[in-house]
Write a structure and sequence with these properties.
Helices cover about 60% and strands about 5% of the residues. By secondary structure, the protein is mainly α. Strands 1-2 form a two-stranded antiparallel ribbon. A hairpin with a 2-residue loop joins β1 and β2. α3 packs across α8.
Length: about 190
């Protein structure tokens, strides 16, 4: 960056580029700053494509977090304090580590019947999410991209256009949320 812009970035812990706010703490690692930027860009692109996409906790801590991992291969940025709030992540060494196995944690929680039900995961507000909720949301995001590839675009349009996720699930995917939850948990077991 030019010196003047870098000075502004350090003072403000971020800056705007063409109306895009890039937030990051310059005291953090380069990997953290990259993940912040990538996550923000994905969020903006998803909002542009699907409307008010980020208002649902499962989209930000789930689908967008997974898409960010696909680009950066790190899990450093969280809006939910996952490592502090979930016993599973403490046992696994903390969800804030770049190498934390989020899908593995979801499988272990599901095996112990401690993974929240999908009806709850897709309805909980981001600010109310626990670590277990975030791990479940992440696994659901992976499931949607892996197992519902053909219908995910329609599902996201339906979800963000004001329909409840439950209704979008029935209309687009052809399953009630409890039925989808059974398929999701089976997928978690079968893809180990």
């Amino acid at each position: 960056l030019p010196e003047a812009l870098d000075k502004q970035r350090r003072r403000n812990a971020g800056f705007y580029v063409a109306k895009l706010r890039l937030d990051f703490n310059s005291d953090r690692s380069a990997a953290y700053r990259l993940e912040c930027s990538v996550r923000r860009v994905i969020y903006i692109l998803m909002n542009s494509a699907f409307g008010r996409f980020g208002r649902l906790g499962w989209t930000g801590e789930g689908l967008i977090a997974y898409m960010t991992w696909l680009v950066c291969r790190t899990h450093l940025v969280h809006y939910v304090r996952v490592g502090a709030q979930t016993e599973q992540s403490r046992k696994d060494g903390g969800a804030g580590r770049p190498d934390f196995a989020w899908l593995g944690a979801a499988r272990r929680l599901a095996a112990k019947d401690e993974l929240p039900e999908l009806t709850y995961i897709v309805s909980v507000d981001l600010n109310a999410m626990t670590g277990e909720d975030a791990i479940g949301a992440y696994a659901f995001g992976v499931y949607l991209l892996a197992a519902q590839t053909e219908l995910i675009t329609q599902f996201l349009h339906a979800t963000s256009s004001g329909r409840e996720t439950a209704r979008a699930s029935e209309v687009v995917l052809g399953y009630t949320l409890p039925e989808l939850d059974v398929r999701f948990r089976r997928w978690l077991r079968e893809t180990e």
